[in-house]
Amino acid sequence: MASLRFFLCFFLFCASSLNLLCSRSLPNQHVALFILGDSLFDPGNNNYINTIAQANYWPYGETYFKYPTGRFSDGRLIPDFIAEYANLPLIPPYLQPGNHQFTYGVNFASAGAGALAESNQGLVIDLKTQLSYFKKVEKLLRQKLGDAEAKAFFSKAVYLINIGANDYISPFTTNSSVLQSFSKEEYVGMVIGNLTDTIKEIYKKGGRKFGFLNLGSLGCVPLMKVFVPGNTGSCFEEATELAKLHNAAFSKALQELEIKLVEFKYAKHDFNISSSERTNDPEKYGFKEADIACCGSGPYRGIFSCGGKRGVTEYELCSDPTQYLFFDSSHFSNKANNQIAELIWSGTPNITGPYNLKSLFEA
After folding, report:
1. 139, 160, 273, 308: most buried by Cβ count inside 10 Å?
2. How far is residue 195's CA from residue 253's CA, in Å, rounded to a whole number?
3. Is 331 part of the annotated catalytic residue set?
């Protein structure tokens, strides 16, 4: 009897150990994260191209990494926090040299990029090129895993995309005449068209679960407030109006895709609301300053000179970035990025919907 008890205990121990071993190695629990976008998401791809749109020098990265990584913040970006919540490592930039396995995904985002190839052309990796990089990775993994496993891998993966702001900012910062060539509605339609085409192409390759941000109040970032005569503190309404048109058109486009594409699921974070709430009442969210950037020069430190390597060498730097909503003239601080990432991950449908990213990773 004693030996039987020992056998049963030994059997149960082995079974539980085997189960633990299997649960750690089961690939079907694995969810990768693929990222496309602009400087809100770029972890350093622009380090490897010839451009002034870089952040690979001090004081970028000063608080969290303690060195510059190429991220436009004093610390982490939204995708870095999302990866942490999903129990993934930091998702590396696609252009970073090394032996990429792509097991956990990869990040294609490029600072300054737009949905339109003409936005900051020659200085960025535009959305179409980012998509072409994704297709290369998809082909590589399909060859490595085989069709069946690759299909499961790409359908379980989450695709996080943020693009569009540069399409509406660059016409003002580069003295482009593009907004004289098209009506605002036509121009927004071109941006949304390229964005939805990208979503459809990823869907064709097996993508089913997507995360998006709409646009914040573009006219209220320090960079754009500089364009308002008299430094009154007012927002630059022309940019904000374009962002509102974009957000309305994007919501409609996503609803149409949900109807047309079988199993298409998405989490859209209302960045317009979350950013405006922090701009209008910074103290509620733990910030002392939402009008002036931590790093930059000129009114509101809105001149894009942080680090002194983009033509303007002089700049001011605050002593405590945690007190500031904006680290530089157009990018959030580590603390602000953390708050937004939490809302994208587990926010309720009034701020992130119809799903949040947590539910998509668990789906």
Report:
1. 160
2. 10
3. yes
